[in-house]
Amino acid sequence: MANTGWIYPFFGTLIGWLGVALTGSDTSSNVLFGGLQKVTAEQLGLNPVLMASANSSGGVMGKMIDAQSIVVASTATKWYGHEGSILRFVFFHSVALATLVGLLVMGQAYVWPLTLLAP
Questions:
Q1: Can you tell me the distance from the alpha carbon of 114 to that of 117, in angstroms, rounded to the nearest whole number?
Q2: What per-residue confidence (pLDDT) applies to 4?
Q3: What are the pLDDT digits (tens) for 27-86?
Q4: Cβ-Cβ contacts under 8 Å for 29 (sequence gap 6 or more)
Q5: What is the 3-state secondary structure (H, E, C) of 23-50?
Q6: Rounded CA separation 101/66 (Å)
Q7: For a tag site, which of 61, 74, 81, 115 has the least CB within 10 Å?
Q8: In the chain, where are the structural domains located?
Q9: Which residues contact 55 (CB under 8 A, 6 or more apart)?
């Protein structure tokens, strides 16, 4: 991941998004990819706390396309058998919001007034 260079904060956010989409849990994604985020951030001279929080923030955007969440949504609305329709509807929103979070993290990593927001 260190080969992505200056654009890593964006991809780091998408790693969290993908982790939650696959595991269904932000905690699991943080355990799975937290070490990767920390090591890569240190190799690139970025704030490891920022990248760990980017993993978690991106994960929140991946929660809406998690299979478990979609099944719960279809059951709660009594729209059984329409899980594919729900996924098609929310997938674009999930990607768009993860992209926005990735851009915010890039801003926090490189743009001066936003760097003050990073711990």
A1: 5
A2: 84
A3: 999 999 999 999 999 999 999 999 999 999 999 999 999 999 999 999 999 999 999 999
A4: 16, 19, 20, 22, 23, 55, 56, 59, 62
A5: HCCHHHHHHHHHHHHHHHHHHHCCCHHH
A6: 18
A7: 81
A8: 2-115
A9: 12, 13, 15, 16, 19, 29, 30, 33, 34, 37
What's the pLDDT band for 115 if we cut at 50, 70, 90? confident
Contact present, 81 and 68 (Cβ < 8 Å) = no
Per-residue pLDDT for 2 more than 80? no
Handedness of CA 57, 41, 34, 12 (dihedral sign): positive
Residue-level length of the chain? 119
Helices assigned H by DSSP within 1-119: 8-23, 26-44, 48-62, 67-76, 83-110, 112-115
